[in-house]
Amino acid sequence: MSGGVDSAVATARAVDAGHDVTGVHLALSRAPEAVRAGARGCCTVEDSRDARRAADVLGIPFYIWDLAEQFREDVIDDFVAEYAAGRTPNPCLRCNEKIKFTAVLDRARALGFDAVVTGHHAKLELDDAGTPHLARSVDMGKDQSYVLAVLTPDQLRFAMFPLGDTTKDDVRAEAARRGLSVADKPDSHDICFIANGDTAGFLTQHLGEQPGEIVDSTSGEVLGSHNGSYSFTIGQRKGLRLGNPVSDGKPRYVLDISPVDNRVTVGTADQLDIATVVAERPVWTTGEVPALPWSGTVQMRAHGGMAGAVVEIDADGRLVVGLTEPVKGISAGQAIVLYDSDNVVGSATICHTVAA
């Protein structure tokens, strides 16, 4: 129970379904009183109180589990290390993988519970053999199947997502009918452990300033400087602060981030086009590799659009994803999720891209 409206209603539905439910709030910050800024952030003292009030209304036991140290190691430290390596991670995906459906699920199972229920907007059904089938929520604007696609079949087998058939507006209306005080509480935004939204400042605090050059991909000309290549992402246009004008007058975008020489390479918009994506560590949602070559759609950002693709597996077990149309600005470190219509087939971590 995060203290938000989604987890409160998901809990209520689990109670209504006749389950013996215990509410658990995760303490993920060592200084939770300092992690709230308006609607940003989550897992604060304020949130824990909101979660407890919801549990009281529902008449269920409520506990707070301190996972701050594990969250720091598995999510925050991973986030910083990925940026330092020139990649762009998704911390929400890592939190689901390492915290909510590893640390929490393992502890819950050890204590005798049958499943972990969350307020994620996604559908999950188990067939007669217990094989999980993960799919998009009916509310495409709130769908979170992308950040759940990293979960293994064993993790999904012990998960429940009661909100997959409900829009966010209907969730809020239901919370109000149930007398839950979080009915109108704003959603948290951005990265929960960077409450002010200043990712570059957060990374500078952890990695220190590392001055380097910004160079043009075609001419090799030095166009500007930066204080740390880790503060850039592929496809970025704003905030480059190029000191020298570009001869063709076209805007420049980040094409490559090289932590080895601390160099950021920029180029024109058409140079962002990607034709092929290579991704490692595949996870197949049902546990079975689909017949190859596989054709369907893929999503490569948490809030990104869909693209048609044909997928093969190379000799190293990596996915080689040929895109039917070029896609701009794909970054290593992000997840690529495979969909058959609305059903999740699997996911992998992008490690390499090939320009169109």
TrEMBL record:
It catalyses: S-sulfanyl-L-cysteinyl-[protein] + uridine(34) in tRNA + AH2 + ATP = 2-thiouridine(34) in tRNA + L-cysteinyl-[protein] + A + AMP + diphosphate + H(+). Residues 277-350 form the tRNA-specific 2-thiouridylase MnmA-like C-terminal domain. Keywords: ATP-binding, Cytoplasm, Disulfide bond, Methyltransferase, Nucleotide-binding, RNA-binding, Transferase, tRNA processing, tRNA-binding. GO terms for molecular function: ATP binding; methyltransferase activity; tRNA binding; tRNA-uridine 2-sulfurtransferase activity. Residues 202-267 form the tRNA-specific 2-thiouridylase MnmA-like central domain. The active site is at 95 (nucleophile), 192 (cysteine persulfide intermediate). Coiled coil: none annotated. ATP binds at residues 26, 119. Disulfide bonds join 95-192. It is found in: Cytoplasm. Catalyzes the 2-thiolation of uridine at the wobble position (U34) of tRNA, leading to the formation of s(2)U34. This is tRNA-specific 2-thiouridylase MnmA. It comes from Antricoccus suffuscus. The gene is mnmA.
